[in-house]
């Protein structure tokens, strides 16, 4: 198995912009992709949670993925989300996305069902066997209802060489440390929480998959890259500025907060698909005030 690992540094979980008629706004999406690449983003995550993927049709998901591949044109790596709480469905998705231009598959722990650790292992075993792309596991217990244990993650990592990493969004630094300490050399940990990225990268994470990076890729990317370069005092100064702001973007759901910020910067329309709705006027104003002065 090739040990090349494409997902390091600043990864951004792409939002999906919409038009007033409810359709995907591909013009806005093209602009967002260009801004991210120009801003120093290292890789993109398409069809993640931030993309409102559960509200996209199967045809829209494929169309968005192909559009982003064309827009990126090989300039940075792309991972695409293929997830379901049905193992059969997840495997079907993985096979459907055997597309040139995709560098990896991101797949979340089955949600709602609350499977046992053995069930989680068996779920990812089937996906790993079906995938011809490198696979990144995604642990986000706040959304799935169950935490994939360190033992289960490392068991999968050791048994399936094409499983090259995990997006760890448990919010538990101790769990991240245990994963890094026990992981094979070919398996990397990516942090999934913007606010924890600096600390997690200092402890050995390969990078972050970010929400805030959609809106401020240069500022947040500088924090990530300074940390990776060991320039911790400079990174800490940026972190101090952003620390009070991370929570604002998630206060009324994600990606509602970051879309509010992006809309005021002319990047997209402040539109979501139900059941998500725009943030309240009070929070919107709080977000704008908080990010005032971060001009990129």
Provide a descriptive summary of the structure in words:
It contains twelve helices and eight strands. The protein is of the alpha/beta class and 296 residues long. It has a single domain, classed as Aldolase class I (TIM Barrel). Helix 3 runs parallel beside helix 4. The protein is globular and about 50 Å long.
Q: What is the CATH top level name? A: Alpha Beta
The overall number of domains is: 1
Helix content range:
40-55%
Second CATH tier, the architecture: Alpha-Beta Barrel
Give the overall silhouette: globular
Structural class: alpha/beta
CATH topology heading: TIM Barrel
Largest sheet: 8 strands, parallel, barrel
**Strand fraction:** 5-15%
Which residues form runs of ≥5 with pLDDT under 50?
A: none
Q: Which oligomeric form is depicted?
A: single chain
Topology (elements, then pairings):
Blueprint: E1 9-13, H1 26-38, E2 43-46, H2 58-72, E3 78-81, H3 87-96, E4 104-108, H4 117-130, E5 135-139, H5 141-144, H6 150-159, E6 163-168, H7 173-182, E7 188-191, H8 197-202, E8 207-210, H9 217-228, H10 232-242, H11 256-264, H12 281-290
Parallel strand pairs: 1-2, 1-8, 2-3, 3-4, 4-5, 5-6, 6-7, 7-8
């Amino acid at each position: 198995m090739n040990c090349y690992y494409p997902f390091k540094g600043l990864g951004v979980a792409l939002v999906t912009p919409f038009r007033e008629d409810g359709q995907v706004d591909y013009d806005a999406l093209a602009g967002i992709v260009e801004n991210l690449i120009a801003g120093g983003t290292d890789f993109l995550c398409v069809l993640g949670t931030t993309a409102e993927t559960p509200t996209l049709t199967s045809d829209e998901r494929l169309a968005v993925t192909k559009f982003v591949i064309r827009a990126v044109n090989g300039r940075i790596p792309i991972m695409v989300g293929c997830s379901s709480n049905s193992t059969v469905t997840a495997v079907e998705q993985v096979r459907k996305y055997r597309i040139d231009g995709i560098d990896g598959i991101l797949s979340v722990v089955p949600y709602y069902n609350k499977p046992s650790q053995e069930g989680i292992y068996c779920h990812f075993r089937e996906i790993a066997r079906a995938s011809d792309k490198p696979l990144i596991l995604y642990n986000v217990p706040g959304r799935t209802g169950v935490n994939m244990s360190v033992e289960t993650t490392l068991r999968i990592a050791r048994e399936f060489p094409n499983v090259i990493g995990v997006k760890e969004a448990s919010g538990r630094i101790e769990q991240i440390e245990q994963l890094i300490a026990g992981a094979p050399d070919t398996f990397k940990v990516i942090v999934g929480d913007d606010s924890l990225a600096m600390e997690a990268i200092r402890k050995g994470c390969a990078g972050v998959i970010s929400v805030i990076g959609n809106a401020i890729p240069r500022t947040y990317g500088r924090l990530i890259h300074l940390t990776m370069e060991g320039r911790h005092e400079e990174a800490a100064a940026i972190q101090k500025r952003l620390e009070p702001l991370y929570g604002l973007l998630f206060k009324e759901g994600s990606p509602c907060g970051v879309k509010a910020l992006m809309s005021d910067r002319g990047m997209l329309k402040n539109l979501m698909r139900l059941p998500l709705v725009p943030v309240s006027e009070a929070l919107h104003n709080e977000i704008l005030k908080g990010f005032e002065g971060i001009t990129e």
